[in-house]
Amino acid sequence: MTRPSSAASVLPRVRKLSGTTPSDSNGHGGPDSSSNPPRLSTLGLITVLLGAFLPMLDFFIVNVALPTIDRDLTAGPATLELFVAGYGIAYAVLLVLGGRLGDLFGRRRLFIAGSIAFGLTSLACGLAPTALALVGARVAQGAAAALMLPQALATIQSATQGERKARAMGIYGAVGGISVVIGQVLGGVLLSANLFGTGWRLIFLVNVPVSVAAALLALRSVPETRSANPARVDLPGTALLAAALLALLVPLMEGRAVGWPWWTWTLLAAFPLLVAAFVRVERRAERAGAVPLVPFSLLRIHGLRTGLTMAVPFFAGFGGFMLVMAVALQQGLNEGPIASGLAMVPMAVGFFIASLAGPRLLNRFGSKVIRAGSVIQAVGLLVLVLTVYGDWSGLSPLVLLPGMAIAGTGQGLVMPPLIRLVLSEIPTERAGVGGGILATTQQSSLALGVATLGTLFLTLAPTHGMHDALALVLALQLLLTLGVMALSTRLPSRVG
Asked: By C-alpha distance, which of 471, 312, 325, 301 is closest to 408?
């Protein structure tokens, strides 16, 4: 059977629209020659991975601190959900724009600017005197993350080649998963440590020296890359994409806390109309020879399209799981922040071991590794469902260990290979926008999982109990994992 499309068939169309060649430009603005392409050193790779680690870590590091923040700032449920949602929404809305700006002004330059901005906004979060000030600082922190993260992806794409690029992509995927789990473990440790009486503020203040270190290291070790003929920022596309994501995520994340007033339903009703308008505007721009925010010609690449489709249920389930487990452990089982965080350690260990084995397995068995990983994850979730249904009064992090370890191993065989697949299908000259599309899909799906599964859990828990609410959410994530398993059969057999 002939594949619907391939990177080779779409690439000429993308080049025609963008006016670029396959090579990016160097720091002097001209195209690189084949004898002197930009090269990302080991220290440079560590630096950009550090820049990718921080934003993903901070998406979930606050989960275990929410009860403490609520008590300290008298936030209330609506403000707490806005505090969580503000970061995720600003992050998701601006990611594609961040990738485009890196293509235009230089990825190292934007990475450094984003690192500094992330440090400053983290400082603002750590010093916030009121709940609303914390919400504003958290939104600004999400915007800074959107400036920094796409540059890491695009730099790996543009300044590594061959097997080194494949390994770097695999490591990036592993960092993405580990950072989410470590976020909740580290959050619990820092909260309990309460150094100098800082309490929950330490989870933000610790970002400041790390962000400064990332910026300084980037000056020394990260080569400057950008598109040879960068396109102008697509303002209509940017505005419509932002409006569509806001129309979906804001009511889903805030609706329950504010009682679902009329404006939440109005925004949800506007979401499909805004998506349709965005698609129409972007396709019209592409047909006219301009470079839209999201070149839909890229989605003709079969592997890229399938990989992005798989990312939605995978990351949605992942995001909802992490929030729900943090709440259930602390409020349902009365575990402290450290115990709640340490409950995630078996998942992190399983994920890490699978991530180390993943690249070699991927080279040998291709996309079958992703399929096997989704099966293992489904088994782990089934074990967790049966464990929760068994004896709620005797439930503890130790009892949850087998299911957590199995699920984490499966996730480690899905997430890094899936990210590597999507990145390998993106043409090099569109590395910035392609990285932005991947990161937007990932973060929007995480936020969607928090909004839907998290809201469902918080709605059912008071009336049906933590026991039934947690079991139902785990069962729904199991269904999402079965969807990932089905979609994995449509992936290309070999991953570049």
From this structure: 325
Report the C-alpha gap between 286 and 383 in whole angstroms: 48
d(CA 476, CA 299): 28
pLDDT in tens, 220-266: 999 998 876 666 778 898 899 889 988 998 888 788 878 889 999 99
Structure tokens at 196: 């100098």
Q: What is the pLDDT of residue 21?
A: 36
Listed residue (189, 286, 170, 204) closest to 237, CA to CA:
286
Cα(209)–Cα(211) distance, integer angstroms: 5
pTM, two decimals, is 0.79
| Nearest residue to 375 via CA among 402, 345, 409, 401 | 409
Produce one character per residue of 95-113: b if its CB has 16 or more CB atoms within 10 Å, e if not. bbbbbbbbbbebbbbbbbb
How far is the C-alpha of 456 from the C-alpha of 175, rounded, in Å?
29
Residues with Cβ within 8 Å of residue 322, at least 6 apart in sequence: 60, 63, 180, 181, 184, 344
Q: Which runs of consecutive H residues, i.e. helices, occur in 160-260?
A: 162-193, 202-205, 207-221, 235-258
Name the CATH superfamily housing domain 40-224+293-488.
Answer: MFS general substrate transporter like domains (1.20.1250.20)
**What is the C-alpha to C-alpha distance for residues 6 and 103, in angstroms, rounded to an integer?**
24
Q: Which of 338, 290, 371 is nearest to 16 (CA)?
A: 290
Domain residue limits, the chain = 40-224+293-488, 234-292
27-33 — which CB contacts under 8 Å span 24+ positions?
Answer: 27/106, 27/108, 27/223, 27/224, 27/225, 29/226, 30/228, 31/228
Hey, how many other C-beta atoms are within 10 angstroms of the C-beta on 235? 10
